[in-house]
TrEMBL record:
Family matches, as SUPFAM superfamilies: all-alpha NTP pyrophosphatases
Matching InterPro entries: dCTP_Pyrophosphatase (IPR052555), DCTPP (IPR025984)
Superkingdom of source: Bacteria
Protein name: Nucleotide pyrophosphohydrolase
Protein source organism: Saccharopolyspora gregorii
Pfam families: MazG-like
């Protein structure tokens, strides 16, 4: 399965088989998404960049990060479904806006906020 649509369909079937739809309100899904993002952050908390790189290189950290990133993605896909958001379209629209907010000639090589460029 490679597409968001296939993932969304599989998730829908998973939740329907368990009668969880009534719990999947936008508010509940947003809260769950935030919690899972926190769990992803917790895996990296207090590690310096070298420890992260080493943990990724030896695989020690990769599995845990993959699990937490998958949880974030799954809740995001469910949130988008519950709110009628086309994630791919929204992402392209956001990149379009960011291209005008962060023109290459001003933003190249720095992390300055768009309002300060």
């Amino acid at each position: 399965m490679d597409s968001i649509a296939e993932l969304r369909s599989r998730l829908r079937g998973f939740a329907e088989a368990r009668d969880w739809g009534r719990f999947h309100t936008p508010k509940n899904l947003a809260m769950a998404l935030g919690g899972e993002a926190g769990e992803l952050i917790a895996e990296l908390q207090w590690l310096d960049d070298t420890a992260v790189a080493d943990g990724l290189a030896n695989g020690e950290l990769t599995g845990r990060l993959a699990d937490e990133a998958a949880d974030v993605l799954l809740y995001l896909v469910q949130f988008a479904e519950a709110t009628g958001i086309d994630l791919v379209r929204a992402a392209h629209d956001k990149i379009d806006r960011n291209e005008s907010r962060y023109p290459v000639h001003l933003a190249h090589g720095n992390a300055t906020k768009s309002t300060e460029l």
